[in-house]
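Here is one chain, start to finish.
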Amino acid sequence: MTIKKKPLIIALLIPLLVGGLSALFTGRMDTFKTLDKPPLSPPSWVFPVAWTLLYLLMGFASYLVYTDSAPAYKKNNALLIYGIQLFFNFFWSIIFFSWELYTVAFVWLMIMWVLIIITTVKFWKINKAAGYLMIPYLLWVTFAAYLNLGIVILN
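Its structure:
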């Protein structure tokens, strides 16, 4: 497999920029520190590390789909769903941390979770490695849903 540098860089930058801009627009998370959190809540430093790794994995997955020899309509459809789930990813932090709408954020996250499943399946059908690279993201968002729901219940 020949690496195409420009598409790879773009594919990696897209989710990193989505996450970075979302964090920028989210701003300070002072209220979050005061919330009652469910068991298994990780320390705050875990989140930016995990998200950075996940953004890199999904970016590489999207690169594998983009450069695959599958028909363009299949790749375009998979990448469209990927883009829609990134849109949901972008706004979840803002809804949860900035607007403090924890129940709305949970519903938003559940929609995002379904979109991630659809993206993962579509990626897998085009390039199995791309599908597998999405699994840590799906697992992390499942864990995030547990944390989000726990905050809804406890606060």
